[in-house]
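As a point of orientation, let us examine one representative protein, giving the amino acid sequence and backbone structure tokens.
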Amino acid sequence: MNKGKPVSLKDLAEELGVSVSTVSRALKNSPEIGEEMRARVKALAKERNYRANPFALSLLKNTVRIIGIIVPDIVTHFYSSIISGISDVARKNGYSVIISSSYEQYEQEKQCVEDLINLRVEGIIACLSQETTDYSHFEILADQNIPLVFFDRVCLTNQFSSVVTNNAESAQQATKHFLSTGSTRVGFIGGSNHLEIVKQRKHGYLQALREHKIPIEKELVFCKHLSFDTGYEGTCRLLSLPQPPDAILAMNDSLAFGAMKAIKERNLQIPQNVSLIGYTDELHSNYVDPPLTAVTHQTYRMGEVAGLLLIKRLKGDLSARQITVPAVLSIRESSKKNSFRP
């Protein structure tokens, strides 16, 4: 058998010295196959980690070539735009895509990987769930010789290619923008600290404070989950401090919208009392009141690059490449504090 490749019915048949149809019938418990042979086939299938292939007929006819995509959710513009970039590259190269969602859950993410392996995808492009700290389910893909590319939330960069934005630099730029418009106490709201993307953006925020010789205060940092509820909870906590922040950097737009709700509930004005910047720049960032300043990702381009990296890997490029697609600070009313000064 070919080491590192998924085991086929043909592989099992050759090892047992029987026909493919015999192996197929044995696995389906056909009465046409004797009990002893059925037991031998099933034992070997288990030993060789054989997986049933729902697309076997199509693949035999060479009519289906599939790339799998795993995202934390499929409803936000951020992920749908990246998926569009991947899908366009896939289509131009003769591939179809299957999209699956982890719903930000580790166990569901593992199931997504398992399902895509079973579907015999030729490669996978994935973004980690917030819960993921164990990456063994992705390492299995290397053993199965299934190419993998990560985007946005990444891991195992020494093994797999990835596409990210300039997380530390963009957070540093956003924080400097606050300071240049008159803010002096900048808070930071982020997700789980084990995520590399959170570490990098928090690092950029802290680096900007250090450069401006502003004391770092741990109580101005709130990291929990990447969600609207965390944005609301974190902002309530920050605004309850004896010396609350006059600016908040939220590391995605869900956090920023939660922060916006908390600020308004306290009858504070944005940006006069509290300036606000979000990340990822969902379409509705332009339509909230006030329009939200955001670190804008080039999401479609990120998807294109991820797709191209996977295609290169499928064509034999075994190198692990780390590509950065820079973000741009889109300045809107939520951070224009100077314009409200007398």
About this structure: The two ends are 78 Å apart (CA to CA). The first strand starts at residue 66 and ends at 71.
